[in-house]
Each structure stands twice: as structure tokens, then as C-alpha cells.
Write a structure and sequence with these properties.
- This protein has about 750 residues and is an alpha/beta fold.
- Strand 20 and strand 21 form a beta hairpin.
- Helix 15 (about 285-295) runs antiparallel to helix 28 (about 590-605), helix 18 (about 385-400) packs across helix 22 and helix 18 (about 385-400) packs across helix 23.
- The termini are far apart.
- It binds a DNA duplex (15 and 10 nucleotides) through helix 20 and helix 27.
DNA sequence: TCTAGCTCTGTTTTT
DNA sequence: CAGAGCTAGA
């Protein structure tokens, strides 16, 4: 304990009530958390009664290994430590019968959930230009993060917003989405929070069990919690009030994902007896870096007052470079890395290049490769998101949960099995009519429009999956996996020459290896590895969590977001330009404040030296733009800045000088109003009351599909549906209450 | 039903 | 520029 400073010590020792630890960048936050867990164990708390929630698996893992060094490893092992999502999904599996799922439910990742939304939008015959997957999935996700279900969606501003944006049917899509997830025995990321909340509210006895179990709750990165997380913690801590949250309001950068900075700003009013601890001593950076960061962040108005300080000596000023274009920008970075690496004998591991958007990585990859500097990109496509891996996962998932429709669609299409869009649409219709999953729908193809040959193929596939499923209990996980891989035909498919993508086979090998490793690891702990448990872990794995290979030296390149929690001696912040950093999407004051916090995070990653770069010309969307330097550079006190030698502010020729030159000159004071007056695409006039009058044989006109004849009216679990034969679009099954059409005749 | 090749469009950050 | 969607032809 004598290695802690006074405020760290106080924060660690105070355990008799709720506490808020404001931990500035580099102030030893993880240290406080780990010591605190150790201290709690010393005070007599059983390890499994301590719940520690983090945002990344990596943070959890690191903390666990540090704790293992401090207390008996056999105790450390039982501390309930993990991400919100992993801890909560475990509870959901244990309590699955309360929420109407089987234990083997699937976790839909973002891709799955977006593809489901897309299919629903199509099914409802809505305009896909208006109801884009990104917009709709964003609306649904935001709703769930605020604990809103289809039943109470839009009581307040929700519907107004949707109406204003001409997407009033989001509520109906939401409802159908929830229904389809249920049929598929699947939940999405946001459900892990929402369903836990519902479980606790609707079943007080379950809540009480977990209140009793978790005697002490610790939360890392509290500034990034959303409403759902706040409410769940509030419930869990309601009995003992032993909750300690650690975070830094200045590093709240995830509001786009529902994080609410007010959770941390208002912690003390939410927990009136809470004690506040501030860790203001920065152990990471030089004084210049800390002061520069302070001078920037103090421009934000919504903050918990604090002043970070360092006693590591002044160090260098932050160096600002102004290369001509992005290629030169990468050159400057490469040159500096080479120079420092050579002259000061600094390992590549100590360098990081940070950018605002992923698309900026390309030039750096190219230049680093050309200069033979090893590098690693963080937070790129997760291993489990890669095409070939997802293909194989689809088969694995389907065996565990045959109702998983998204996996069904993927598996039946790759490799192709003579089943095309037409058959799948017919199968979907059959499934919708009966309220079952796609695979279940193949059990009875009578009365569907599916052609005999296609039907045979569907049935063969179903039988194959069922046979594999039967092997689940008998075979070892390894043997089962081999059999599934065999059945999938993916190896042959990807080894055929027609695939230009050589990585596919490697990736599948990688997945098999992950399973082998998983079996081994579980074996060590005397646990039985099952496919189901492997998949539920895999679903929560992200790229940032992968083992770090400390042996190979490499420069790290990543987004600023991905860099949170990391530190590097030398940091290059590139693309510090208006319309890029800050992002052009951020206009409101609080949005700009978040961008400023993002810049603050970027600067405070640096221990020894920080470089900021901006260019005069950049290619975006294939076109040249001429950016202005970021306002954030001018907001940093010049006392801590230095302009790079050969790149002193030059007088640029006026004809290309500013980005505003390229922008349209009109001003649009109210963007949402702008959207509002966009001309209607002509469906507004159609009466939805026709839905009650329609009968078989009617000719109808649909805004999107055109004219068609009503073939059949069907009463299905999700509501009355009609089957329409459209002149140009073929037969569609539509849910009556959602469809806007008029009866012709 | 499948594929190749064309056009169009939209691009922030991610547990 | 890349990915998605669409069309035509096998």
C-alpha cells in the first residue's frame, strides 16, 4: 500500500458506501481498481461476491492478471470480472427460462441485426431509401439503450423525431424485429442490457438473488455507461449501496453509442451519500503534454472540476506539422519514427499513430510497409467478423440453435446449394405465416410455392443440420467441429481457384485453432467445453481483445477511440483538420465538446512526445478537398506548441485555400427542417384504412411495388397478412397493418 | 439460379 | 473509393 499516493490510498480504503473516483488520464486508475479488489478480499469479501465491470475484455483480463499477482490466484480466479456484456449474458443464460429463450440462444452481432432489419423493411414494403438499415438500427439501438421497448416507444419525443424524419414506421419495424429475434431464439448486443433490466424489474426474487450475491460492485470507465447500465447497477446496488465507480468525465467519448456523461456528472445526486475521490496526479506524461491537454479541455463547460498535474519534467513541446497532403503526412510520420528509432534507440512498440476515422489508415499502412516498419492496426475488422469466419460460424451457430435465421440464410447461401433468392423468399413467407424459424418451416413445405427440386435441397440441408445436432452430446467439441466443417463444404469452396481471397482458408484454420485452444483452456480448469459456450464467448470477442504479441516490435496505428486506456511514448495525431477532427457531423455544442474530449484523449496517450499533423489537401470520396486546420490546435495554449521546421504556416494561394471555398455557400439554419420539406414520394396520399376493406381478388397499388392482385389473406401470429402478386415484382407477403396501399377498381 | 460487370451512393467513432 | 444493388445473359 505504500506504493500508492495519498488520494489513491484513500480511494482504495473507503469501502463503507458508494464512491466516485475521478481518475484523470494516466493517474493510476487500474492500479486503484486492482488494489481495491485485493483490499476487499483482505477485508473478508468472498471473491465471487465482488462484481467488477469493464468495457473491454482486455481491460478485464489485464486487471485479473494483476490481481492474481497480489492475492492467492485461487481466490483471484473467482472474482466476477468481465465486461458488462459478458457478465450479463452469463446471467441471461442462467435465467433463460424467465425471458423465454433456451439456454443456447444466439447472440446476433451488428451484421446479423442489420441484415434482419433490412429484411423486415423489405417485408413491410417500406422505402429502403428512407428506412436505411443504418438509420433504423441506430434508432432501435438507441431506444434499447434507453430501456425503451416497442410498447413504450415514442411516448415522448420518439415518434415526433421519426415523423420529422419521415420514418414513422420505425416503431413497427422495432416491434417486428423483436418478434423475429424471439422466433430465432436470438438476442442482440443491446438486449444483454435491456433484458437484464427487464428480468430484474419483473422478477424481484431474481434481482434479490443477485443483490445478495454481489456484495460489492466496481465499475471501470463509468463515464461511458448508458442509461440501461446505470439503471441496472442502481438496482443491483440497491440493497447494500456498496458501489464504486471509476472514470473520467473528460474522457467520455462514446455518446454516439448511448453513453450518457450525466451518469458520472450526477453520480453524487444519484447516490447522495457518495464520497468523491479525485486522482489528479498524472504519472504518464511530461508536464508540457499534461498542460497542453488541460488548456484544451478547460474549454468544455460540462466538467467535474479538476486539474491534472505531472512532475515528470517539462519535456518537449507538442510539435505541429503542416504537410501538403496525406501522402506527405505519412512521410513526416515515417521519417520521425525512423529518426527516433535510430537516433534514440526507441523500440517501434513505443509509437502510435492516431486518427479520427478508420479510412485514414490506408496511407499509413502503405508508407509503413514501404519503409519496412512493422505495424499493427487495432480495432480493424474483428476476426469473428471476417467473411469466411462468419460463414463457418453460421454453421456452428445453426447446429447449436437451429432457429437462428440469420445463420440459416448465410449457411444455405455459402457455398451455394442451388437455393436462390426466390426460394428463400418463399420459405420466409411460409415461416412468417406460421410464426416459426426458417429451418422449422422446411418441415412442412406443403402449400408453399417452393418448387419440388428446391424443396428437396432444403430438406436435405435441414436433415444434415439435425444429424450434426444429434452429435452434439456424443462427440467431443473437436470432433463435432470437424464434422460440421465437413458438412459445410467451406474448405472445398474456399480452396477452389475462383476465390481471390487467400486468407479465407487461413481464417477458417484460425477459427479451428481457436476452438482447439478453447478446449485446452477449459480442460485446465476442469470445465467441459461445449460449442454453445464457445460461441457465446466468441460473440463477445472484439479485435481489441486479442492477445498482444509482445515479442514482435511494431508501431500501433488505430483510431483515437481505440486508443483509450493505452499509452505510448511517442504519439502522432494525424488529420487534425476541420471537417475531419472535429467530425463534420458534430455541430451542436455538446457534440463539439465530445470531439474536444476525443482530442484530449489523443493527446494524453502520449508519455514523452506528441505530434499533431494537419494537411492542406486531402482526397476524400475520390475528390480533393482543402481542409482548414482543426480548431483544437488553436485552442491549445501556444506555450506548449511548436511549429515544425519545414512546415511553418505558409501563405497558401487563396484560390484553393479553405474548405469553405468548396462548400456550398447557402446556409441551412435548420437541417431537420430541411428534411421535413423534402418532397413526399407520393405514398402519403394513400389511405391505410383500405387495409380493413381489402379482399381477395382486389387490385391494389403499393407505393413501392406498384400494382398487384391480392391472392390471399392470411391470419398469422404477427398479424393479418396478404399475399399479393405484383405485376413487376412477383408475389410478396405483406403484413396488413404496416402496408400502405390503395385499392384500385 | 448464378455470376460478371455496370452504376450509384454514401462514408465517425464500436461494446 | 469501395461496397451494394441492379441487369443481362448463361
Amino acid at each position: 500500500m505504500n506504493t500508492l499516493n495519498e488520494s489513491q490510498y484513500n480511494a482504495v480504503m473507503y469501502n463503507s458506501g458508494p464512491s466516485l473516483v475521478i481518475a484523470g488520464a494516466g493517474s493510476g486508475k487500474t492500479r486503484v481498481l486492482t488494489y481495491k479488489v485485493a483490499q476487499l478480499i483482505r477485508e473478508g469479501y468472498a471473491p465471487n461476491s465482488i462484481l467488477v465491470l469493464t468495457f473491454t475484455n482486455k481491460a478485464a483480463k489485464e486487471m485479473k492478471s494483476r490481481i492474481t499477482e497480489m492475492v492467492d490466484p485461487r481466490m483471484a480466479r473467482y472474482v466476477a470480472m468481465g465486461t458488462f456484456h459478458s457478465q450479463f449474458s452469463r446471467i441471461l443464460r442462467d435465467e433463460h427460462e424467465y425471458i423465454g429463450l433456451t439456454r443456447d440462444f444466439t447472440v446476433y452481432d451488428t451484421t446479423d441485426s442489420k441484415s434482419l432489419i433490412k429484411s423486415i423493411v423489405k417485408q413491410m414494403g417500406l422505402d429502403e431509401k428512407l428506412y436505411t438499415t443504418n438509420v433504423v438500427s441506430g434508432r432501435i439501438s438507441a431506444a434499447k439503450n434507453r430501456l425503451i421497448t416497442p410498447d413504450n416507444y415514442g411516448d415522448k419525443e420518439g415518434v415526433t423525431y421519426d415523423v420529422l424524419h419521415r420514418i414513422p414506421k420505425v416503431k413497427d419495424i422495432f416491434r417486428e424485429y423483436v418478434e423475429r429475434c424471439k422466433i430465432a431464439n436470438a438476442i442482440d448486443f443491446d438486449d444483454m442490457l435491456l433484458l437484464i433490466y427487464k428480468l430484474f424489474v419483473q422478477h424481484p426474487e431474481v434481482l434479490e438473488k443477485y443483490q445478495e450475491r454481489f456484495q460489492f460492485i466496481l465499475i471501470d470507465e463509468y463515464q461511458d455507461t448508458n442509461l440501461a447500465q446505470y439503471k441496472i447497477i442502481k438496482l443491483l446496488a440497491d440493497k447494500h449501496h456498496r458501489v464504486c465507480v471509476v472514470g473520467d468525465d473528460s474522457q467520455s467519448i462514446y455518446s454516439f453509442r448511448g453513453a450518457d456523461i450525466n451518469n458520472i456528472l450526477q453520480f453524487q445526486s444519484n447516490y447522495p451519500e457518495a464520497k468523491l475521490f479525485k486522482l489528479e496526479k498524472n504519472y504518464r506524461s511530461t508536464e508540457n503534454i499534461v498542460k497542453a491537454a488541460n488548456s484544451l479541455i478547460k474549454r468544455n463547460s460540462h466538467r467535474i472540476p479538476k486539474t491534472l498535474y505531472s512532475d515528470n519534467g517539462d519535456g518537449h513541446l507538442i510539435k505541429v506539422y503542416n504537410p501538403e497532403n496525406e501522402s506527405e503526412e505519412a512521410d513526416v510520420v515515417v521519417r520521425q519514427i525512423n529518426r527516433i528509432n535510430r537516433d534514440e534507440n526507441v523500440s517501434y512498440n513505443n509509437f502510435a499513430v492516431l486518427y479520427r476515422t478508420n479510412s485514414q489508415s490506408r496511407v499509413f499502412e502503405k508508407k509503413l510497409r514501404e519503409s519496412r516498419i512493422p505495424y499493427a492496426i487495432y480495432g480493424s475488422l474483428s476476426f469473428y467478423q471476417r467473411k469466411s469466419v462468419k460463414d463457418m460460424l453460421a454453421y456452428l451457430r445453426l447446429v447449436v440453435n437451429p432457429k437462428d435465421d440469420e445463420s440459416y440464410l448465410r449457411a444455405i447461401k455459402t457455398p451455394s446449394k442451388g437455393i436462390g433468392d426466390t426460394t428463400l423468399e418463399r420459405l420466409r413467407n411460409a415461416a412468417l405465416e406460421r410464426g416459426v424459424s426458417l429451418l422449422e418451416a422446411t418441415d412442412d413445405l406443403e402449400g408453399t410455392e417452393i418448387k419440388a427440386a428446391a424443396g428437396k435441397r432444403l430438406i436435405a440441408f435441414t436433415e444434415g443440420i439435425r444429424k450434426l445436432r444429434a452429435g452434439m452430446s456424443e462427440l467431443s467439441l473437436i470432433d463435432l467441429t470437424k464434422r460440421i466443417l465437413d458438412f459445410s463444404g467451406l474448405m472445398q469452396y474456399y480452396s477452389a481457384d475462383n476465390q481471390d481471397n487467400d486468407d479465407a482458408l487461413d481464417n477458417i484454420d484460425g477459427l479451428i485453432k481457436n476452438i482447439t485452444d478453447y478446449v485446452e483452456e477449459k480442460g485446465k480448469n476442469d470445465e467441459i467445453p461445449t460449442l454453445s459456450s464457445f460461441l457465446s464467448d466468441a460473440a463477445l470477442q472484439t479485435d481489441a481483445d486479442k492477445e498482444e504479441d509482445v515479442n514482435t516490435e511494431k508501431v500501433s496505428i488505430m483510431t483515437v477511440h481505440a486508443s483509450k486506456g493505452l499509452e505510448f511514448d511517442y504519439v502522432f495525431i494525424v488529420g487534425a483538420e476541420e471537417e475531419l477532427f472535429p467530425s463534420p457531423r458534430c455541430v451542436a455544442d455538446d457534440e463539439i465538446e465530445e470531439e474536444r474530449r476525443l482530442m484530449y484523449v489523443a493527446i494524453t496517450r502520449a508519455a514523452k512526445r506528441c505530434f499533431i499533423l494537419y494537411t492542406n489537401k486531402r482526397t476524400r470520396f475520390g475528390k480533393d478537398i482543402y481542409p482548414q486546420r482543426s480548431r483544437f490546435i488553436s485552442e491549445i495554449d501556444d506555450n506548449y506548441l511548436e511549429m515544425g521546421n519545414s512546415f511553418i504556416e505558409r501563405n497558401r494561394p487563396t484560390h484553393i485555400s479553405t474548405s469553405s471555398y468548396n462548400k456550398p455557400t447557402y446556409s441551412n439554419p435548420n437541417p431537420s427542417l430541411h428534411k421535413l420539406v423534402k418532397p413526399s414520394i407520393g405514398l402519403g396520399a394513400m389511405a391505410s384504412s383500405d387495409a380493413t376493406k381489402v379482399k381477395v381478388g382486389d387490385m391494389i397499388e403499393h407505393s413501392h411495388f406498384g400494382v398487384g392482385e391480392v391472392l390471399e389473406l392470411i391470419d398469422a401470429p404477427s398479424g393479418r397478412q396478404m399475399k399479393v402478386n405484383f405485376k413487376n415484382q412477383g408475389i410478396k407477403l405483406m403484413i396488413l397493418k404496416f402496408v400502405k396501399f390503395k385499392i384500385l377498381s
